[in-house]
């Protein structure tokens, strides 16, 4: 998730000398966003690896996958169930598994196995839009506990229950009529920033 030309990833604990990031993508819209995230990370000189076990037939999502492949971003054929392997190989995980797509419930494969693994990793987790396994309204019901949440467009109701270190919103692209219709009252984005912090690091 590009924050600016100076900071390509909203995690101060992720310096460029430790650039490896595992991006875990689900089969629906949030997974496609994860593919775009991986592409941006590569542009800013990080070293993303993608796990995308159930690829969507949607032509746009296929294009995103091809773009990542053309940028020589590696794809894992399986996610290690031994979490120590993940802890040792990567410095952070981007959770793009479920997001707000309620129909892809936690109990369905391959999502259930992925979440069971991610719940035990010790490296920081950055969730895109809605942490995987959370209800978009009620919040966590046994889902993962990310360190960072990046809300897309606007924070969802469940973000009120987010207790991680940092919360960002990426919604500068929203048309004014949409902002007005849903009374979003977006935060002020300084300069050319596309992401703004709603919670300072702790």
From TrEMBL:
<feature type="domain" description="YjeF N-terminal">
    <location>
        <begin position="1"/>
        <end position="186"/>
    </location>
</feature>
<protein>
    <recommendedName>
        <fullName>ApoA-I-binding protein 2</fullName>
    </recommendedName>
</protein>
<dbReference type="GO" id="GO:0052856">
    <property type="term" value="F:NAD(P)HX epimerase activity"/>
</dbReference>
<dbReference type="Pfam" id="PF03853">
    <property type="entry name" value="YjeF_N"/>
</dbReference>
<dbReference type="GO" id="GO:0005739">
    <property type="term" value="C:mitochondrion"/>
</dbReference>
<dbReference type="InterPro" id="IPR036652">
    <property type="entry name" value="YjeF_N_dom_sf"/>
</dbReference>
<dbReference type="InterPro" id="IPR004443">
    <property type="entry name" value="YjeF_N_dom"/>
</dbReference>
<dbReference type="InterPro" id="IPR032976">
    <property type="entry name" value="YJEFN_prot_NAXE-like"/>
</dbReference>
